[in-house]
Structures are given as C-alpha cells and as structure tokens.
Design goal:
692 residues; mainly alpha; two-stranded antiparallel sheet; 2 strands; 72% helix
Length: 692
C-alpha cells in the first residue's frame, strides 16, 4: 500500500475540483486557458488539504522509528517531556497510508511553488487579459501589463522591505535559502491576515445558517427578500444591455463593410445576443450613406471600451435571467413545503411539475410520502442537530486558536487529540482527526470565499454563471489562503516545531516552508498572537455588526428587525405571486389545448379525408361532381366552420389585466401587432357565400 493512498487521493481530488468547477464555470463558452488555470489552482489547493493528514501520519511513524533506534536518553531529549518515546523492544507499526521517504518533499515543493506562481504572477495577468476589450492578442497583453504594473510593484516593495530588514540585521547573512524563506513569510503573512477575517465569519455563519434553516418560514422570507433585490438587479441589467446595444447599433450603422475597423465591429456583434444580431443584420446596408454632414467615426480605443462593456453587460444579463428562474423554482418549492406541513394525507403535493424529468430510480425511492416526511418532519431536526455539531466544532476551534501556543500544559484540543492517539500509534484515528479538523477549517474559509461578493467585480454564481474574472480571482484567493491555513492547522496540532519548541522531526510540508526564525517578529509574534483576533471577529459576526454597517451604507441586507427588510419581503412576495399566477395561466392554456386536440383531433382528420375523396371524385367524373355539388359544398363549409371553431378555442386564453406586459396576450401575432379582423373576416366570407 506504499503510495497507493497518495495516488487514490490525487485522482479523487482532481475529479472533485472538476465537478465543483463545472457547477460554477461554463466549459462550452469560456476560454480553455481560463478553465485550465482555474482548475489547476483549485486542484492544487484541495490537494494540499487532503494530502496533509498523510504527511502527519508518516511523520509520526518516522518519529517512532527514530525513538526506537536511538538511546533512551537521546529519545527523551529529542522528543521532550510531553512527546511519548517508543520503547526499544517494541516495533513501530507502519501506517496503511505510509508514503516512502523522498516523495513528500518533492511533492510539496512542486505543489507549493506551482500554486504560488499561479496566484502571484499568472492568474493576475490572465484576469486582466480576460477582462480586456482588445481585439488582438497583442492589444490584450499590453492592457494586462499596464493594469498589473502597480500590482507587481506593490509586491516588489513589500519584498524589498523584508530584504532590507534582513540585510541591515548583522545577525543574518543573505543566502538563497533565507531569501526563499523571506518570500514565503511575506506570502503567508498576507494570507494569514485574510484567513483570520474569513475564518471568523465562517465559524459563526455556517452553524447559524443551518439553525435558521430549521425555522418555519425563515427560508421563505429570505427568498422573498432575495427576489426583490434580484428583480432590481435584473431590471438594471436589462436596461444596461439595451443602452449598450443601442450604442452597438449606432456603431454598426456608421461603420460600413469597406471601413478598416469593420472587423472590430463584427467581433463586437458576435458577443451580442442572437436577437440583437438578427435585428442589426436586417437594418444593415452595404453602401456608404453620403450626407452633407461629415460622419464621426469611432476610434479603435472607443471600440475596445465598447467591446469590454458588451462582454460585461451580456454576461450580467444572462446571469440575472438564470438566477431569476432558479429563485422562482426555489420560492415555489418553499411555498409548497409551507402548504404541505398541514397535510392530513402526509403526501407531498407540488403546485408545478418539475420542468426536467427526474430519474426513475429517484422517483421510485423518493415517493411523495417519503418527500413529505423528509421536508416537513425530518429536515428541520437534521438542520438543528447539524447546527449544534458545527457550533461545537467552532467553539473548539476558537479555544484552540487562542491557546495553541501553550505546550506545557497542552491547552489546544486538537493537539491533545493527536498526542493521545500518538501514544497508541492509532494511525487511522490520527488521519481522521487531522482530516476532519482541516476539512472543517477549509469549509469555513472556502464557503466564505464562495459567499462574498465584491460589488459586480467578483461574484461566484452557480449553474455555470460565473465569469472568467471571478473564476480566476477565486483561484488566486485559494492559492493564497491554503498555505497559511495548513500552517495554522499544524500549529493547532503542535506538529510545527516552531510552535511546539521541540527538537523533533518536522513534517515534510513544514520543511518546505523553511525556518521562520529568520524573521523572529513574525514567527514569535504575528503567527502566534494574530489568530487570537478570531474571537473578536466571531463576536462581531454573531451580532451582525457587518450587516448593520452595510445597511447604514445603503447596501440592503436581510435583517428581521428592519423596516426596509419588511418592505422588500412584501415586494418579493408580490413578485412571486405574480409569476406564479402567470405560470398557472400558461399551464391551464396548455391543458386546454391538449384536451381539445384529443377531443376534436379525429373530426379534423375526417373533414380532411372527406375533402380528398371529393377531389378524387371530381377528377374521375364530371357528371357526379355536378350532381353532388351542393352536398360537397356544404360539407366543405361545415368542415371550415368546425376548423375555425377549434382554432379559436385552442388559441383563446383568459386575460389577466394585472399582468406586467401586453405581450402575454395570446391573441398577439408574431410581429407584435394585433390585427382583429384577420381571422374573423375569413369566417365572415365563408358564411356569406354559404347560400350561393
């Protein structure tokens, strides 16, 4: 099994990162380089989290072998008073996930430096490149370099400050390993600063979200609130798209096919929605419109800016449309849950059938009765129990973050768990304890990354609605947060020798990071005392201080004791009710069409068959046609009357005078104009000549 666990986890983590990326990104529309770079960044970060427990168990086994092979005095000196020494007459048991020596250092070196190259050099450049509106590769590269000049200059300034500090200090000499350690310390310092902020929010918000999810009506009220805000954002996106498309139309009409900038205009048109492309294509002429006034042609710089605006507005419009449809389905389902809670039959009844057919296996197992028991009875209790478990983990993490620097006595819960399992060399327990600890820390941090929204520049939207800029930015955050997160985890478990102050064999991950003693004020000060601020952040999150500050600044947030929140809930409830009524009318109209088609479809076929028979009789015998002229004429008239009556009943739907738009009228034609005389004039003509 040597190295088998490492290979299995490498493959598993790759597919995990691919599945999560597929949920947020769009593999068909987005550039392949963006998908590959984001996938690589996510994959390396998830890989560090999953492989680190194997590194811990391998390190404990190596410490056991050193303790067995060394003398008792050397063992006690090297291990310290708190670390158990293995007896000389006892052989250490090799863990099932043991990794041979020499593999982990190379593995961590490749993973770490690749992730750092991505987050500090490649991904920022690709962000500017993806957001650029240039029409050529050279133009996009030039724009990306200009935008990142200040970005890279800041990094050089910070690194130069650390370099000057080491050069001035006479106790240190500048060597390559020390320069490497300074760069790692600078990156980890920035990452730890952001890590504590995100961790403090996630430790409180994740348990509270599950606890509030168990409350009756809470999720429905929050969905109404989201609907009101999303409708405002959707209207703004539609208005912005209309304005941008109007500018594109003017540019399209001013720059003809013989203009040198026509290729740029065609590139912009390809990024526009299909209906706008067809509309602009119909109004396009091949000749130059010569007028007395001179034409003011746009410059290439203005077209680059317009191209960038088109990409952004189209993506925002598509995202809001998809999010609105998903939010409607969620609101309808939550309303069904509220209605079915008082059901006496204990069978879940849906107001609308799902648009996509479900799997037959799921339909067989997840019956309406099972759905009622889960949604109305078991799910609230499941969320309450899960919230209590997560809150317990959060309290343990907060306590350990404030006391992990104490090695005698050991106050960190996670360090106590690991040392207790190390006495019996229970490697499976050690791996599970390490995995659940670092997994919970990662969930608290990563979930905050997926939740935060920096205006409209950074927003991870599910269902393939995340733009390239946000995907690359998330990859940057993951690569910067994961290394300090793992160092913080090793500090909580006292596996980091700089924290435990023990002369023991370090983990392979710690050996790659180097000794932080080069910068003593960071190793002995910032890394130890800064994580204690997580207590203040947890208190601020518990009392929703950030949410209240955003409300004061004008960014409306969901708060139960706020008047503006109540108004938005009422507005969202009305929007959901209006959409629900519109969908009910649509389904009723489809049901009526289906019923009339099933009832009168045979009559239409019979009338068509009679017309064909009469036509054959006319061709075969002129005399028989004259004899049966009146009967065939009345047969055609009756068939036409029957057909007109069926078509009227198929197309007619009840009108709703509270509807938002006039285009929902079923009597509207495809061109958008209503012609009241068309069909009725044809009916009147047939009735006029019936008696002739």
């Amino acid at each position: 099994m040597s190295g088998a666990a490492l290979g299995i986890e490498i493959v598993f983590v790759f597919f995990l990162a691919l599945i999560i990326l597929h949920r947020y990104g769009d593999f068909k529309k987005q550039h392949r380089l963006v998908i590959v770079a984001t996938l690589l960044a996510w994959y390396l970060c998830f890989l560090i989290v999953f492989i680190l427990p194997l590194d811990v168990t391998t390190t404990i086994y190596n410490r056991c072998k050193l303790a067995v092979n060394s003398s008792p005095s050397e063992s006690s000196i090297s291990n310290g008073s708190d670390t158990p020494a293995a007896p000389r007459n006892r052989e250490c048991f090799k863990p099932w996930s043991y990794i041979p020596p020499g593999i982990m250092p190379v593995f961590w070196r490749v993973v770490y430096w690749t992730s750092q190259f991505l987050t500090w050099i490649l991904l920022p450049f690709m962000q500017s490149y993806a957001r650029s509106g240039g029409f050529s590769i050279t133009g996009k590269i030039k724009t990306a370099l200009i935008e990142n000049a200040i970005y890279y200059g800041t990094y050089l300034l910070i690194f130069g400050a650390f370099l000057i500090y080491v050069a001035v200090n006479p106790n240190f000499s500048l060597e390559w390993n020390q320069l490497q350690t300074i760069g790692i310390a600078a990156a980890n310092t920035w990452g730890l600063f952001l890590l504590v902020l995100l961790l403090g929010y996630g430790l409180v918000e994740i348990p509270r979200s599950h606890w509030n999810g168990a409350k009756k009506g809470y999720l429905l009220m929050k969905t109404y609130f989201k609907a009101a805000k999303l409708m405002t954002e959707k209207a703004d996106a539609e208005e912005n798209l209309e304005d941008i498309m109007e500018e594109v139309r003017k540019v399209n009409e001013s720059i003809k096919y013989n203009h040198p900038l026509r290729k740029c205009v065609d590139t912009i048109l390809k990024k526009c929605p299909t209906e706008y492309q067809e509309r602009m294509g119909r109004n396009m002429d091949d000749y130059e419109d010569f007028e007395e006034r001179p034409n003011a042609y746009p410059t290439e710089k203005s077209l680059v800016k317009l191209h960038k605006q088109v990409i952004y507005s189209v993506q925002k419009h598509c995202r809001t449309q998809v999010q609105w449809r998903i939010l409607l389905e969620q609101a309808f389902y939550l309303e069904d849950v509220a209605k079915n809670e008082a059901s006496a039959t204990r069978q879940f009844v849906h107001t609308f059938q799902p648009q996509e057919p479900e799997n037959k296996v799921i339909q067989y197992l997840y019956t309406p009765t099972a759905e009622w028991y889960w949604e109305c009875l078991l799910r609230p209790w499941f969320h309450r129990i899960l919230a209590i478990v997560l809150a317990t983990f959060s309290i343990i993490v907060v306590w350990s973050e404030c006391t992990f620097f104490s090695t005698n006595p050991v106050l960190s819960f996670f360090a106590g768990f690991i040392q207790l399992a190390e006495k019996t060399y229970n490697y499976f327990y050690i791996e599970m304890a390490c995995f659940f600890t670092i997994f919970f820390l990662s969930i608290c941090v990563y979930s905050t990354v997926f939740r935060i929204r920096v205006f409209n520049y950074y927003y991870l939207a599910s269902h393939h609605q995340t733009d390239a800029y946000s995907l690359l930015f998330s990859g940057m955050l993951f690569c910067r947060l994961t290394p300090p997160l793992c160092l913080n985890f090793l500090g909580l478990t006292h596996m980091d020798s700089s924290i435990s102050h023990q002369n023991t064999e370090p983990t392979a991950y710690t050996s790659i990071m180097g000794s932080m003693k080069v910068l003593s004020f960071i190793a002995d000060g910032f890394y130890i005392y800064y994580p204690m601020l997580v207590v203040i952040l947890c208190i601020a999150t518990y009392f929703s201080l950030g949410t209240r500050c955003l409300n004061l600044l004008g960014f409306q947030q969901f708060m139960g004791d706020n008047e503006m929140t109540s108004d938005l809930i009422d507005e969202g409830k009305e929007l959901i009710r209006r959409e629900k009524r519109r969908r009910q009318r649509q389904e009723e109209g489809e049901n009526r069409r289906r019923e009339w088609k099933e009832r009168y479809g045979n009559n239409r076929e019979d009338s068509a068959r009679n017309r064909n028979v009469q036509a054959d009789q006319k061709e075969s015998s002129f005399t028989e046609t004259n004899t049966n002229r009146f009967s065939s004429k009345y047969t055609r008239a009756n068939g036409r009357n029957e057909r007109d009556r069926i078509e009227l009943l198929q197309d007619a739907e009840p009108l709703d005078f509270n509807a938002d738009t006039v285009t929902e009228d079923p009597l509207d034609s495809d061109s958008g104009r209503y012609q009241p005389g068309g069909r009725y004039l044809s009916m009147s003509r047939s009735r006029i000549f019936d008696d002739v």
